[in-house]
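**Backbone geometry record:**
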Amino acid sequence: MRKIVTLLLLILLSSCLNNEDYSLPDITVENPDIPLEQITTFSAIKSLYEQALNNGNSTTKIYSETNLYIEGYVISTDKYGNFFEELIIQNKVDDNNPNNDPRLGFKISINASSLSDTYQFGQKVFVKLNDLTIGEDSGVITIGKGDAVQVEQIQASEYQDIIFRTNEIANIQPKMAGFETLTSADLNTLIQLENMQLNRLEMGRTFAAESFDEFDGLRLLENCNTGISTILQTSTFSDFNALVVPQGKGSITGILSRDYGDDFNVLVINSSEAVNFENSNRCDPLEWNCDLATTLGTNNLLYQDFEDQRNNRPVEIEGWTNFIEAGTEAWEGYSSTSSNASLGRSCRFQCASSGDVSNIGWLITPPINLDEQDGETLRFKTSNSLADSSFMEVLYSQDWDGDEATITSATWGVFSDAYIVKDTDSFASWFNSGTIDLSCETGTVYIAFKFTGGGIESFDGIYELDEISVDFAE
């Protein structure tokens, strides 16, 4: 009886092993045979989309009498959960520019997950464009299905008949760039930013697991050379969302994109390993030693509301310094016509349409002697029409000599407790700085309102400043 049972088991096992359902999957990749004349460029497809925009359409469908393809390289991966139902491809493995074809990238919207199982990072692919639609999704150029209104997803049943992989896995080299030099042409492409760090006010935060993170975690990064900031965007569904962002400084590599509402540029990384902040020597400025004041002095030492300034003309006030460090723009008089006009005339820094890659402007108070009275405090108000990755700081110096030639070589610290309007705040309101205590220091101090931005898109914010007041107790 035992022999019969054993024989039956052997027969059953042999049957299972010979069943094709248990065979190893075929992981080989056969290169598609695509005629060269059927391959077009990324720039040609982008031009089709731009023509549609000029004709008042938000999308365009690609028609061709023969099969039409683009070839590109996958630069995104959903392996770690920070990308979902999308492939990002760019047309180059590095920043070389053969045939004058500019470096460009597209997002492909696909109603399928685990795309990294099929398309590896760096894998060369061909995309069959016939009857696909090109438009924008959250501010970036996107390829998918759809009509003349919006781009819709390519369905799971068809995407492998549209996106053909090859057996070439390229070593993708990110573009080394300063954030201030990037333009919309760099969207959907891989970039690397050097000498970056997490902003000091965000120290200790996770990538995307704070109580206020709903769909994405937005973390402010800054460049130690220029002070220019950018936003790191991480999905709350990513595998590394609960990791703390590295606290040092260094390089970060990711895909330049736009936030969900298409309000500002963001950097999206494939995994936490894209952040190499291994240098523990951060570049934070000195911070003012005093805390916020609990009482406000009743005597005024300095007050400026800019009512006597001319609109759209550089601020000129005796004893004040309006210094242009970079670019052609300066702090200027301004009267708002929006709901924040209740303060009357203010001053603002506007670099939009300046044509300058970089704008840095300083508005510096006269010297304030902290030894002549007690209980000094500082207050001011800020508003903005948009920030667009530009930013404003309130700084102080106790060693500047009052000469414009030495502004950038003097030691400047920051009033870190002072509230400055954020890009997420309502643009129609004025925000109080809080009452900054100046009384714990001695000697002479200069206070500077410094704007950093540029005339190119995504870096051309507008900040308004008003009612600067230094008071004292006696």
User: Anything to note?
Assistant: Residues 125 and 165 are 4 Å apart (CA to CA). Residues 2-18 form the longest helix (17 residues).
